[in-house]
Amino acid sequence: MYCDFHAHTSFSSDSEAAPQAQIKKAISLGMKKLCITDHEDIDYPSEYGMPFVFDYDEYYACLSELRELYSDKIELLIGVELGLQPHLGEVLAEYTANHKFDFIIGSTHLVDRVDTYYPEMFTGLSEYDALLKYFEELLLNIQTFNDFDVLGHIDYIVRYTPSGGLMYNCHDFDDIIDEILNYAILHGIGIECNTARLGSGFLHCNPHEDIIKRYRELGGEIITLGSDSHTPRTLANKFKLAGEILKEAGFKYYTVFKDRKPEFLPL
Ligand SMILES: [Zn+2]
Ligand SMILES: [Zn+2]
Questions:
Q1: In the prediction, which pLDDT does 89 show?
Q2: Quick one: pLDDT band at residue 207, thresholds 50, 70, 90?
Q3: Cα 19 to the chain's mean position, in Å?
Q4: 175 CA from centroid of ligand 1 (Å)
Q5: CATH number of the domain encompassing residue 88
Q6: CA distances (Å), 139 to each of 26, 65, 262, in order?
């Protein structure tokens, strides 16, 4: 089983999964490495009533203990999913400089401080305009701060559009997506194949398979696999299919990280 490098636990406000439960599930699937990546969304808008930040010392101590406990069965890596916002460049740079992680995902969840998860994101906007705004914000975010290892779920907003992703054609956004991918490649940043929605309704991974293919065409080599699982039930969701998607896109290897350094494993 491929290693899952995007998994949440109860250290994230939107998950009730015990870290141990995620680890046990990974072991039962025959996974050799698992990276827990809980949400750290600094300055997440308070009106949503979810803090989306964890106590670093508590997090690191808990996962270090579990890493030790299960070390003969699986290698546990300690990661984080950092929420990016354009005004946070310096704050995030200070955070990553002062906190040790094996792996950092940089994710855009907000546009103009509105969470794309909520319908208000789409009020008064066509789906095209909402998506374009999302990609523009993502580009601005990474131009402001780039001390992370992979870009999380590049077209994340598609999960929540009023049409449920049906009106999405990623080629409508080729120019800005090329700009994002070229920026990432130039700065040694990878992408992830996020399988949270793969095979269920929307049927695509995030980003869309064509964007993964484009990243490879442009010379990108760093790609992780992440289920974005918030419960053990969905850990490694559709990873077999994801492996086929990566091979189809021209990858021979996928990537895992330790101490922020990439290692390439055969697909
Ligand atoms: Zn995310
Ligand atoms: Zn996530």
A1: 96
A2: very high
A3: 18
A4: 23
A5: 3.20.20.140
A6: 33, 37, 23
Task: Give the global pTM.
Answer: 0.97
What's 170-211 look like in SS3?
HHHHHHHHHHHHHHHHHCCCEEEEECCCCCCCCCCCECCHHH
Report which bound ligand comes closest to the CA of 38: 2
Quote the Cα angle for 215-121-139, to 5°. Answer: 30
d(CA 52, CA 150): 20
72 alpha carbon – ligand 1 mean position (Å):
30
Q: How many domains does the chain have?
A: 1
Q: What is the residue range of 46's domain?
A: 4-266
Contact 228, 176 (CB under 8 A): no
The residues that bridge with 189 in the sheet, in sequence order, are none
Tell me if 48 sits within 8 A of 259, measured CB to CB.
no
